[in-house]
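Kindly review this protein for my students:
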Amino acid sequence: MTIDVNCYKPSLTEAWDTFCTNAVNSTFLHTRRFLAYHGDRFTDASAVLMQADVIVGVFPAAVSPVDRSMVVSHPGITYGGIVHDGALCGAKMIEALGQLLKHYRAGGYERLRYKVVPHVYQIRPAQDDLYALFRIGAQRSRCDLSCTIELHDRAKPSERRRRGLKKALKSVLVQAGAEQVRPLWRVLTDNLARKHNAAPVHSAEEMERLVGLFPGMIELFCATIGGHVVAGVVVFKTRTAWHAQYIAASEAAYSVSALDAVFDHAIAEATVAGVRYFDFGTSNECQGTVLNENLYQYKHEYGGGGAVHEYYDVDLLGAQNVGL
């Protein structure tokens, strides 16, 4: 039975989010509830894959902000991909991707950027899309390196991290609580401005809104000295992994290794929660071509290993028709 691809429309919001709840490779970032918080920042180009009027896959996507001829899955989230419940395997995934390409080609687009869901966010192996991308001649355009801890088979933290934790625990208290957005954002904003002449992607108001939209799924772990927040991390909780979305520390926090205590607390909580991974996020610059080696080494010293975030580009006008 042929897979049909339709443009997403608001009337499908509930069905989309319900489907994501039961998918094998989705997180709350794929939901319309999360995507909608971007407002009109992006021109939505999401698609729904149907078979006999039943949803078999969803594809969050938007038009590239810098190239109107390209669709990206999705420019507002870390990863996109074809979200499915496991049924789109083997030849079915090849068909699904082929139909998706035809859909966007018919819409006048020339390129598709496909951001793969890293395996650490899949509840069971679901990399059929990588094989399908190979079959249609997609080119890997970017690869970022993340550092991820396998919580039930964790490498031993380095001596430097153990010393840092011992030092931190003498000076700071660590507590979890989503209400700490404002004080942590003051630290984060100052940190980014001082070190990189940059600002957070999310404002404090936006992060507070996200916390309200996803209670229990976005958590803050903060270190305090004398009752004042000096360091912390924002954690996005998914079914298989907890992801450190933002990491911030003041000069005072660095002097006492406060982040060692923050991460020790967060990693311990993730282990108790029963998830498989704690993901520190990527350490890349310049579209993945430059690795911040000091940052990656710092994360690696907590007992992690490498996991990649891959991007693939498809020329919609010249994509191969093998198996389609």
The first strand starts at residue 4 and ends at 7. Residues 149-307 form a domain with the Aminopeptidase fold (CATH 3.40.630.30). The first helix runs from residue 13 to 22.
